[in-house]
Amino acid sequence: QVQLVESGGGLVQSGESLRLACAASGIISSIYGMGWYRQAPGKQRELVATRTNGGTTNYADSVKGRFTISRDNAKNTVSLQMNSLKPEDTAVYYCKAWGSLNYWGQGTRVTVSS
After folding, report:
1. pLDDT at 86 over 90
2. Is the pLDDT assigned to residue 28 strictly greater than 90?
């Protein structure tokens, strides 16, 4: 089992930055990769950014050039640096870890005001 705890959400104005962090605990060796997804009100959950253990990253087109995912293997954390935030980035952001199973955090809310 893997447990994920997110932190770092909040309310910011358009153009500002936030950094989300996700701490993983449990059977870390079972994880192949980690990433971030988000779900805006009335919309489906969507991929934001992912990073495999090998370092391969993938970003949603809407966040390329603004968001950066990083991993600290020593601390078992994955972070999402979000710059130039827009109102359309408003959502609950979820950390995900995957291996033979998928694991999700409880989510952290990000609100960007215009």
Report:
1. yes
2. no
Distance, C-alpha 103 to centroid of its chain? 13
- Which are the contacts of 6, defined by CB distance < 8 A and separation ≥ 6? 20, 21, 22, 93, 94, 95, 105, 106, 107, 108
What is the predicted pLDDT for the residue at 91?
98
pLDDT at 59: 98
CB within 8 A of 8, min separation 6: which ones?
18, 19, 20, 21, 108
Give the largest Cα separation in the chain, rounded. 42
* Structural contact between residues 52 and 99, judged by C-beta atoms closer than 8 angstroms: no
What is the model's pLDDT at position 95? 97
In the predicted model, is pLDDT for residue 75 greater than 90?
no
Tokens of 48: 């934001």
The torsion of the CA quartet 95, 79, 97, 57, rounded to 10 degrees, works out to 120
Say if strands 33-39 and 91-98 run parallel, antiparallel, or are unpaired.
antiparallel
